[in-house]
């Protein structure tokens, strides 16, 4: 039984290590969007290259995150966590010194591999290290500090881009890793799952990532109408079909098909696909809109996005408690509708927009919608499966959200008619943005309709509740780990 107490010196070191590690990935997910216009100008990149700057990271992260958790259980959670931190920092260094967009995109894909190793490991280390009586409080402190990091992210990203330059958005991860790794090796105990085996679904992970990469390429390059686009789309669909086949026939699949036997689990993942597709497209385009069309600096654009994250930091815990009483259907129906209203309010944001009257109202409504739905979403995922499968269910839901976001970043500019140089023209980008926001709102309305008709209305008695009460990520619902016993 783990004996580390939260008030001990070692307990504080463990918390510091996990906060530093998770903050690297959390900051990266919030600051890169703000840097995109400067990256495009400095590297003479097309809009497609900017899409890949976001999506190359998301492809490998979404495809490998389930495998990353399994590797930690088998080979040691501290070992895989440290490997992930070192890998992430090395890839971040490559991003920071990339001389062109091709090398930047390749480094971002490597960065996603590191993220897939360290992201599940932060929570797993806390669950495995702390005494059962302190575990809940430790998770709460970790998620709270992580939430503060997420809230600071857009402001920090804007300050770095406006000051030292966009390369420091990535280079910042190197000193964080140099602090995190020695502390982890000295103060964090090693742990592993004694029942874990050496069989890993590497084929499933590769097929999943390959299908996402091929389909993303087809969507981003679709306007060219070349034979390569058609071939990529066909191969992407074939890889997706092969992934489903492999998962159905492997004895130990990464994504167990029988978990979808739960109607509630299937329904909430459909809602997840809708809402996080809309969120992914919204935050990608909004960071560009505020700089390209409105004409704000990266610092102003990053700071402008703070209200959404701050609302989640302050009220996500209360939202989770409220949904325990009302049941999941109401918040999962109302939350997407509020976010859809926010995206329609963003139609007011264009050249000459005023922050207080045009931007802030939309972001406050957006924050209210995310507060309403994110915590109940996670709770419903956990309640829909057996307690022993909580970690797997949460991992699937997290990966689904990331996959939906990257597909949206690839598809939305195509659907909105954005050309490869759209971000270089304020008027052209503003017109495309005004076509994109109603599309995002429509996808959210679809998610709301699915929740109303498919998600159970009543609270689930005796269900497992999330250990994380603070939810601040804008790209995916929070990961929950396996339920450890005393």
UniProtKB/TrEMBL annotation:
User: Where is the protein localized?
Assistant: Cell membrane
Membrane topology term reads: Multi-pass membrane protein
Supply the InterPro entries for this chain: EmrB-like (IPR004638), MFS (IPR011701), MFS_dom (IPR020846), MFS_trans_sf (IPR036259)
The residue ranges crossing the membrane are 12-36, 48-68, 80-99, 105-126, 138-162, 168-188, 200-220, 226-246, 267-290, 296-318, 330-347, 359-383, 395-416, 436-455
Q: Which key words tag this protein in UniProt?
A: Antibiotic resistance, Cell membrane, Membrane, Transmembrane, Transmembrane helix, Transport
Would I find Transmembrane helix among this entry's keywords? Answer: yes
Coiled-coil annotation: which residues?
A: none
Q: Which Gene3D superfamilies match?
A: MFS general substrate transporter like domains, Multidrug resistance protein D
> Domain named Major facilitator superfamily (MFS) profile: which ranges?
14-459
User: Domain of life, per the record?
Assistant: Bacteria
Region of interest: Disordered: 463-486
Give the PROSITE patterns listed for this entry.
Answer: MFS
Q: Name the NCBIfam families on file.
A: efflux_EmrB (TIGR00711)
What protein is this chain from? MFS transporter
